[in-house]
Amino acid sequence: MSGADPYTELRHAMVEGQIRARGVSDQRLLAAMRKIPRHFFVPPAYERAAYQDNPLPIGEGQTISQPYIVAVMTELLALKPGDTVLEIGTGSGYQAAILGELVGRVISVERIASVAEQAGENLKRAGVGNVTIIVGDGTKGYPAEAPYDAILITAATPTVPEPLIEQMAEGGRLVAPTGPRDCQDLVRLVKRGGQVERTTFGGVCFVPLIGEYGWRGAD
Ligand code: SAM
Questions:
Q1: Can you give 55-112 as a three-state secondary structure string?
Q2: Does the structure show a pLDDT above 70 at 1?
Q3: 86 CA to middle of ligand 1, Å?
Q4: Looking at the DSSP assignment, which residues form a beta bridge with residue 92?
Q5: Domain around 166
Q6: Catalytic residue flag (residue 65)
Q7: Which residues form the active site (predicted)?
Q8: Which residues contact 195 (CB under 8 A, 6 or more apart)?
Q9: Given ligand 1 and candidates 56, 209, 216, 219, which is best to mutate, with the most ligand atoms within 8 Å of its CB?
Q10: How far is the CA of 213 from the centre of ligand 1 (A)?
């Protein structure tokens, strides 16, 4: 990144007004959201809208999630600096960039090749160097680098895909929008002693996770 950032003030206001004011308190997360230029992750036509309190279209019928939801899901993962994180649904790459600020390594799987390619460009422009994007069906996870300390699914799934549960490390956390195709509950799984504890949080509305262990068929 070089030159003055015209959106610094708007970004700080986003963190204060939309995120901290609603109860997100993880200081490392708040700092990451103050730092990462969200306007690099939206199509040029939406640049001025990048710091608004809503999701935005990124093409191919997909979206960059609302900043507050990015913050809530990330906080629920209880990340530690040495963690390796698997994200399913790269989209714009913004969530991956926030995760990359908080941990050592992020692997992010995206189903649509053109979306993955744009995300790669966005991450490069933002100077994020610890995110690896994989094109494929993320409902199968990414066994090559498992197990993961944290797994984040950023698309709506009817149930948490079994391969992703298998790829959780002992003590690992998984967060996913789970339930009906239109709107879902945010669910967190924690693996302890080989068993999975499940906690349900508030309602969210995500685009569908399409794949072998998610929703079947076209979007
Ligand atoms: N995390 C993204 C961001 O920061 O912009 C937002 C994700 S968007 C709401 C959901 C993404 O999940 C879309 O890009 C969609 O193509 C992707 N997706 C849907 N099914 C998938 C699957 N089986 N594997 C990987 N990605 C999938």
A1: CEEEECCEEECCHHHHHHHHHHCCCCCCCEEEEECCCCCHHHHHHHHHCCEEEEEECC
A2: no
A3: 13
A4: none
A5: 7-204
A6: yes
A7: 65
A8: none
A9: 209
A10: 14
pLDDT tens digits, 25-47: 999 999 999 999 999 999 999 99
Residue nearest to atom 24 of ligand 1 (CA): 138
In a domain, 38, yes or no: yes
Residue 3 gets which letter from DSSP? S
ipTM computed for the complex: 0.99
Catalytic residue among 65, 92, 108, 114: 65
Let me know if residue 18 belongs to a domain. yes
Give the mean model confidence (pLDDT) for residues 49-71: 97
According to DSSP, the β-strands at 84-88 and 148-153 are parallel
CATH of the domain at 66: 3.40.50.150
**What tens digit of pLDDT does each residue of 78-111 get?**
999 999 999 999 999 999 999 999 999 999 999 9
List pLDDT tens digits, range 115-148.
999 999 999 999 999 999 999 999 999 999 999 9
> Distance (Å, rounded) from C-alpha 46 to C-alpha 76?
28
Sheet holding 168-178, edge to edge: 131-135, 105-110, 84-88, 148-153, 168-178, 184-192, 195-204
